[in-house]
């Protein structure tokens, strides 16, 4: 299958090697991967901040760049949710109506693409240690992604997948929420981190690097022995 790769802003700016790991994973699953170098953003940061005109302009750029003859695989559930759900508010009854509707049907987050579309759960990945998976709010509530990443992680050789207490609670990031309500955001992050630490896991894994970076600030400040990993980084281990 031919797929277009969509790289989230957080991955592009903070951990571009995750994007290369996405390519490695998708190629291992039998896909031919292409990436448009002109790609920038889906518009989510501006949309969440209430700047809908700016979000619409960024979204139009994306819609002009995508190839609708291919499936688009996103490295974050938040980007997937923006395209699937929020583009309804930006482009309905516009000149982009048909194009965004088609894109919505062909956009998938990495884990749901592998499990639900390709029917792949085992890639031959190897990573030794204990890990806990963190549900992002966009993945869980907007894209209904819960079991897909867990199925993939359970097939990683040497990895013991643990569950944290209260897994559906938010980590406190929420885009501009973490800026506008910093004290509350930090308290939520600390509560989430305490739940992670209670499992004794060495790795904290998620589909969304933004959530991982939010917790990583506390991890580094407290010198904790836990490593954040995007799902693609885990799945690319040992390939």
- Percent helix range: 40-55%
Estimate the strand proportion. Answer: 15-25%
Quaternary state of this entry equals single chain
Radius of gyration: 17 Å
Write down the secondary-structure element order. EHHEHHEHHEHEHHEHHEHEH
**Annotation, overall tally of beta strands:** 8
Query: Strand arrangement, largest sheet?
Result: 2-1-3-4
Average per-residue pLDDT, rounded, comes to 95
How many domains would you count in the coordinates? 2
Task: Name the shape in a single word.
Answer: globular
Largest sheet: 4 strands, parallel
Instruction: Please identify the structural class as seen in this structure.
Output: alpha/beta
Unreliable sequence segments:
none
Q: If helices are DSSP runs of H or I spanning 4 or more residues, what is the number of helices?
A: 13
Distance between termini?
A: 20 Å
What does this structure look like?
With 239 residues, the protein is α/β, with parallel strands linked by helices. It folds into two domains: 2-116, no CATH class; 122-236, Rossmann fold. The protein is 51% helix and 15% strand. The chain has 13 helices and eight strands. It has helices spanning 9-14, 17-28, 44-48, 52-65, 77-91, 97-105, 110-117, 137-142, 147-154, 177-180, 182-197, 209-221, 231-236, and strands at residues 2-6, 32-34, 71-74, 107-109, 126-133, 157-162, 203-206, 227-230. The chain has a four-stranded parallel sheet, sandwiched between helices. A four-stranded parallel sheet has the order 6-5-7-8, sandwiched between helices. Strand 7, helix 12 (209-221) and strand 8 form a beta-alpha-beta unit. Helix 7 packs across helix 9 and helix 11 crosses helix 12. It is globular. The protein starts with a strand and ends with a helix. 44% of the residues are buried.
């Amino acid at each position: 299958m031919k797929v277009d790769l969509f790289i989230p802003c957080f991955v592009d700016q903070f951990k571009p090697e995750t994007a290369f790991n996405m390519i490695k994973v998708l190629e291992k699953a039998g896909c031919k991967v292409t990436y448009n170098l002109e790609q920038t953003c889906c518009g989510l940061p501006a949309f969440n901040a209430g700047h809908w005109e700016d979000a619409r302009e960024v979204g139009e750029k994306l819609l002009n760049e995508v190839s609708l003859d291919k499936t688009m695989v996103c490295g974050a559930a938040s980007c997937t949710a923006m395209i699937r759900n929020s583009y309804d508010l930006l482009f309905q009854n516009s000149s982009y109506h048909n194009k965004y509707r088609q894109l919505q049907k062909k956009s998938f987050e990495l884990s749901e693409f592998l499990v639900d579309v390709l029917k792949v759960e085992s890639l031959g990945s190897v990573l030794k240690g204990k890990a806990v998976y963190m549900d992002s709010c966009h993945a869980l509530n907007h894209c209904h992604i819960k079991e897909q990443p867990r199925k993939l992680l359970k097939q990683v050789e040497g990895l013991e997948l643990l569950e944290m207490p209260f897994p559906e609670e938010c980590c406190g990031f929420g885009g501009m929420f973490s800026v506008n309500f910093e004290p509350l955001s930090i308290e939520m992050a600390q509560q989430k981190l305490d739940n992670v630490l209670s499992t004794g896991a060495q790795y904290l894994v998620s589909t969304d690097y933004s959530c991982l970076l939010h917790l990583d600030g506390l991890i580094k400040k407290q010198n904790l022995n836990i490593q954040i990993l995007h799902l693609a980084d885990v799945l690319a281990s040992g390939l």
